[in-house]
Amino acid sequence: IRINAFTRGVGNEVAEILAKSDHQGGVVLDLRDNPGGLVEEAVAVVGAFVSGGVVVSYERRGQESVVLEAAQGSKEDGSLAVVVNAQSVSASEIVAAALQDRNRAVIVGIKTFGKGTVQEPQLLSDGSTIQLSVGRYRTPSGRYLEGRGVQPDVVSPSSKSIARAVSIVTSLNTIAGPGGKG
Asked: Is residue 90 annotated as part of the catalytic site, yes or no?
């Protein structure tokens, strides 16, 4: 499954693809060159692969942490590999980090960009807007993404990372059998 950006509806699209396809051999989620997008869509994508629990949290100065969680329910439990590169940014890093922290997926590729800031648009008096960074994202295990990115479990150059991810998913199925956790 290739996600080019986290635009409105991507979470539902991923859930529909999973519901309609026979993926007993596992899933490779390709987030390479993904510039991010809507955080709620990243949470929905993670929710397609886990049942409930923390996906990401963030803090704003002087305020309590906000925790975003995946929806409860029966979710995919087959082998999963997530492919990333240095152009995997923001919401794509949230997905990769959440699935990695929860031991749900093997992350393959090269270290991600490291944009872990919460941004909000602010309307200016002339009608234009600017994006202000107002907080920092944390992974379920408490890691900050800003300036650090997501370090893959298996380092592989982009040109070979899909083949490597398929190999990993296949190996996981051999070890755990179809439906085994990745």
From this structure: yes
Catalytic annotation present for 115: yes
Which of 90, 92, 156, 161 is flagged as catalytic?
90
Using a 10 angstrom Cβ sphere, with 0-12 exposed, 13-18 middle and 19 or more buried, the burial of residue 175 is exposed
Q: Is this prediction's pTM over 0.85?
A: yes
Residue 33 burial class via C-beta count within 10 angstroms: exposed 0-12, middle 13-18, buried 19 and up = middle
Candidates 92, 101, 156, 161; catalytic one: 101
Tokens 């002339």: give the residue: 126
Do residues 66 and 58 lie in contact, with contact meaning Cβ atoms separated by under 8 Å? yes
Over residues 154-172, the pLDDT tens digits come to: 999 988 999 999 999 988 8
Catalytic hit among 88, 92, 115, 156: 115
What is the number of residues in the chain? Answer: 182
Closest of 5, 78, 86, 87 to residue 45, by C-alpha: 5
Element of type H or E holding 162? helix 158-176
